[in-house]
Each structure stands twice: as C-alpha cells, then as structure tokens.
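We append the chain.
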Amino acid sequence: MSKNTTYYVKAYAINSKGTAYGEQVSFITSKEVALPSVDTAEATDVTESSVTLGGEIKSDGNNPVTERGIVYSTTEKPTLENNKVSAKMDDSKSFTINLSDLKSNTKYYVRAYAINSIGTSYGEQISFTTTKEISLPSIITIEATDVTESSATLGGEIKSDGNSPVTERGIVYSFTEKPTL
C-alpha cells in the first residue's frame, strides 16, 4: 500500500452460482510523518540588552508540533543545548519572542526550532549584534578667559559621547554654586 492514498474495498464470496460482493467501504492510509519545517525570522528592535526574534512553522511534518521557539548563543549553530526560549503554542504558524538581559555590543547567533514526535528541526541561522551600552557624555569645563566686568569667554570639551550622538551642548551659569539647566 502507498502512503496517503485512498483505497476502496469490497468483500466477496464465490460459489457455483457466481461471485457476490459486499458493500464498498474506503480508507486512507496514513501520511508520511517527518520532522517539522521552520523558518527563522530576522531580528528586530535590537538594543544594547534586548531584541525581538521569532519564526514560522512551514510544515508540521504531518504530526503535531509540540514545542516551538528560538535557540541562541554567542557561537554559531545554536541548539537546544544552548539558550532556549519556547514560544506560546497557539493556532498561528508564526511566533515572536522578546529577549532581554543580553550583553551589550555582543554578536548573537539565532535559529528557530520546532519539535514533533519524530524530533527537532531548526531554521536557518541568523545573527545580530546588540548595540553598545549608552552612558552619559563625558565633558570638561574650560576655565573662563577674557573676563571683563560684563563678559567672559566660556566653553567646554566633549571627551566622550557615551555611545550616543550628542544632540545639544552649551554652558549653564548662575549666581549660586552648581548651576543646572
């Protein structure tokens, strides 16, 4: 018999008068069961410590998927033995996972996975790099020069942007100590 094929069946009996047939019945043989097929989605919303990842089940292998999610690592070809995050099981083929607590400025490798009774399959590997950790800019105030009774030349020097572009700079001053904006 062939897999996933409809067969029609009749019982029969032969005697001296001839051949008699029973009513026809039919059945379908089982489909071939295989590993599921899954695609890995591109990384989105990458920050210094988080990312959005996911995947899509392309085929269940003719056997229900019992678990799906992503695996990730700082080395290539991550598996269930590395870091694993399972996705919620529902009727949709696609799933999304938000990861946090990642190291800043680090390259990660990711694969979606799906499990059925035959085993585990993985989607293609993608990679992303978290952004650098952002800190306050580092700045020094330059001593006042050309001081007169009604004016002075003031300034500063930015030593580091804290891994984020400086959007404004200037001088604050006051008649009291510790001036602020």
